[in-house]
Amino acid sequence: MLAAKGRIYWRLLRTKSAEQALIAAAKSPAYAAEAQYWLGRIYSFKGSQAEGAYPGWHEEVSYRPRATAAFTAAGEPKAEWVAAIETGEAKLKLLDARIAMLQSSTDASVADLRAAIDARTALRPDPMSYALGANLLLARRADLPHVMRMAAEGQAAGERFIRENESSYKLDGKVQASLDRNRAGFADIAGWAAFLQGDIKIAEERLAESARLSRGLDSTNQLHLAELSRKKGDLENAREHYLTLLGLAGATPVQRDQAKTALADVQAKSGESPAEYEKWLAATLERKREERRKALVSNMAGKKLPALVLTDLQGHKVDLQAERGNVVLLNFFSAW
């Protein structure tokens, strides 16, 4: 039972639970080899393949010798162990391909798309699969009550997914940031689904929650907030959200075009001509860029540098107090 649980948990990428179950299973002589093989797969992934596999993940080199030790203890892998991995990955690829095909087909039914999405999230319920599936249905403005359920299930699945893989994020701060992004993403999905269903109250609550958690830096959320403000007739707030979106580096070309078109419409209501709008937009975006630059610089400008004793690349201690009066460039970087 423990060996089977470990395999299933690993297929679901519930890494912490998988490792615990397999370590316990390895104590049984009958299942030790199998458990060690799967532990080797987990440790090999964490030590050599995790970098960028999911947003914020890093390789953990301390797992590399553990992977070698586990594979050595397992001995020659049985054919069915290897086949289980290949079968699972093949199923994932088939479902991903089917979803992509249904997405691009104009004749595909919503029922078929939903069935493929549900099968994909059941096979590996990571937050990205829920978000992708929900957004595909939102793009069609279809099955919106199901999208709301997917948002709730996706948020819970995402939190479990992050907690099960905390060590891959390296830092506690990155874990919390990932939890916030997870909640923000699914709050936006739920808010937009509510908006499309005409539930403005719920839309306001969830979209505002997303903006708070993403600190106003999510372009999709800003677009949705702008559309909500326009729906309410609040053109001033709509204008601000569109402008915020245009100032974000992560905004897509489609989102930028949509925001510019909508802004042109908003400005036209105040009597601006197209030429006046283009001039106003360029000046406004430049002003906002300068305001952001000054805000970033002013955070530390003029403040006293705390006492720092650092180690240089040659291993020598450098006390920055000794550099008082000189220009000092500090280059901060990380190496895992």
Entry summary:
By secondary structure, this protein is mainly alpha-helical.
Q: Can you characterise this structure?
A:
The chain is mostly helical and 336 residues long. Among the domains are: 2-77, no CATH class; 106-215, no CATH class. It has 14 helices and two strands, in the order H-H-H-H-H-H-H-H-H-H-H-H-H-H-E-E. Strands 1-2 form a two-stranded antiparallel sheet. Strand 1 and strand 2 form a beta hairpin. The longest helix is centred in the first third of the chain and has 26 residues, at 79-104. The mean pLDDT is 92.
List keywords for this structure.
336 residues, 2 strands, 14 helices, mainly alpha, two-stranded antiparallel sheet
* Radius of gyration from the alpha-carbon trace, in angstroms: 25 Å
Stretches where pLDDT is under 50 for at least 5 consecutive residues are none
Largest sheet composition: 2 strands, antiparallel
Strand order of the largest sheet: 1-2
> Tally of extended strands?
2
Number of helices: 14
Relative strand content: under 5%
Rounded mean pLDDT score = 92
What is the approximate shape? flat
Helix-and-strand structural type: mainly alpha
Helix content: 55-70%
The SSE order reads HHHHHHHHHHHHHHEE
